[in-house]
Amino acid sequence: MLGRASCKKCAAITSAFEAKVQKDDMGGLRYSTGFPSSHKKRRTDLRLPMEIVTRSGEIKDIQVPLKDYYPAIVLPVFDPPACIDEREYDGGIELVGYTVTRPKRSLDEILEKYDAKEIATYSMRWPEAWARMFAKIGYSLAVKQYGLDRLKQQDIYVLDAIIGTKNDIGRWVGCLDEPTFEGEKDQIVGLFLKDGEIHAVIKLFSWIRKIPAYLVVVGKLSDDAKS
């Protein structure tokens, strides 16, 4: 961990969009599966939101205990970064799909308990926040690999999108042309150089056989660092 890696203003900005991903879109999954969090003790008294359609057709929002939550892993699918396929680009980023990895547990017990024929959990409400989070990961990898003194601020494409001063995140962040990776032994997080540009590849959840892989075009590497 880098101590004092961000000023207070930038830290507040990045914490806000990371919270949308980690707490809003993935909160139920993280709590119900015991993912690492900033809380030292796992709260067992939490109740998480689910939407159900009852057998009579009524739609209800309910709160369920951790043991009754259905923790599907939902990941966003984007077009490739606009700078890669050179398509017409107007700003922002568009969610073009998503992948769902369902847990092995059966739904029958939950459906029976809540007199439901369908259930839904809340996720993928903040696709732009996901993209900005991937951009931050890619930039952080570049800083770790090359050091700040080898990265000129004016040559880093994603910085304005990360801190929200430009609405161009979809120009630099998206999915790889190959929409999924076959399951790998380890997660994929790495960098490569292409024509002097730093590209970061990010794949989450290594145990899932087929999931999206994300590409971040971070920026240019200074001339004295290309060797």
What do you see in this structure?
It is a single chain. Helix content is 28%, strand content 27%. The chain is an alpha+beta fold and 227 residues long. The protein has a domain of 99 residues. The strands form four sheets. It has a four-stranded antiparallel beta sheet. A three-stranded antiparallel beta sheet has the order 2-1-5. The chain has a two-stranded antiparallel sheet with strand order 3-4. Helix 1 packs across helix 2 and helix 1 packs across helix 5. The longest helix has 20 residues. 27% of the residues are buried.
Short summary:
This protein is an alpha+beta fold. Helix content is 28%, strand content 27%.
Order of strands, main sheet, comes to 6-11-9-8
**Strand runs, count:** 11
Structural class: alpha+beta
**What form results from the Cα inertia axes?**
elongated
Query: What portion of the residues fall into strands of 2 or more residues?
Result: 25-35%
Secondary-structure element pattern, one letter each: HHEEEHEHEHHHEEEEEE
Mean pLDDT: 85
The separation of the N and C termini measures: 27 Å
User: Unreliable segments (pLDDT under 50, ≥5 consecutive)?
Assistant: none
Radius of gyration: 20 Å
| Helix share bin | 25-40%
Number of helices: 7
Profile the largest sheet.
4 strands, antiparallel
